[in-house]
Amino acid sequence: MAAEETPPAPLRERKKQKTRAAIREAARRLVAERGWEAATLDRIAAGAEVSPSTVLRYFPVREDILLTDENDELLEARLRARPAGEDPLESLRAVVLDAIRTALDTEPDEVRLRARLMAEIPAVRARLTETTAMTGRRLARALADRTGRAADDLEVRVFTAAVLGALRETTLYWAEHGLGDDLVDLLDRALDTLRTGPALPARP
Predict the structure, then answer these.
(1) How confident is the model at residue 14 (pLDDT cuts 50, 70, 90)?
(2) What does the longest C-alpha to C-alpha distance in the chain come to?
(3) pLDDT of 127-155, one tens digit each?
(4) Full-prediction pTM beyond 0.85?
(5) CA dist., res. 48 & res. 17, Å (int)
(6) Within 10 A of 115 (CB to CB), how many other CB atoms are there?
(7) Which ranges of the chain would DSSP assign to H, the alpha helix?
(8) Span 79-108, pLDDT tens digits
(9) What is the rounded distance in angstroms from the CA atom of residue 179 to the CA atom of residue 174?
(10) In a 10 Å sphere around its CB, with 0-12 CB exposed, 13-18 middle and 19+ buried, how is residue 170 labelled?
């Protein structure tokens, strides 16, 4: 029997995806060419050939145009699919590193632009903190289910927030140091620090 093919998304959904992609691309182009402040609602709308109200309908918060990637559901599914009994830090490490590798492979310019904006624009950094917290709640639920704890368990919430905080701080470090290092290696190193703490400097 032939394998079943995944049916294409309905036309309405495909149109929505196309519109979202056009808005994102217009914003990226404006920011890359003219800077964050120049990427106003009206200019983004004009670049995407949609109305300003359409931009607001898809992205009520301007920073989300460049910060959100709608991968939270996929991250949660991949975390739930990790081997039973695996160390929680290793489960989250595998999921997060894989997501970063994929993003760097498929959209390197967007990853670098996002990192640079995080480092340079306080409003972008503040919004990232909010969206990271939303991601953290989803991953915390999955981790709680895997470990037999309650979804609002303090240790689960703190642990998940620490891993995502490591991702945020590593990305900022990467941007502040010129984006020249390997982001995946930096994050792997940061996650090791969560387990061991920073090494003490050698005594003279």
Answers:
(1) confident
(2) 71
(3) 988 888 889 999 999 999 988 888 789 99
(4) no
(5) 13
(6) 19
(7) 11-34, 41-48, 52-58, 64-67, 72-80, 88-106, 108-120, 122-147, 154-176, 183-196
(8) 999 998 899 999 999 999 999 999 999 989
(9) 5
(10) buried
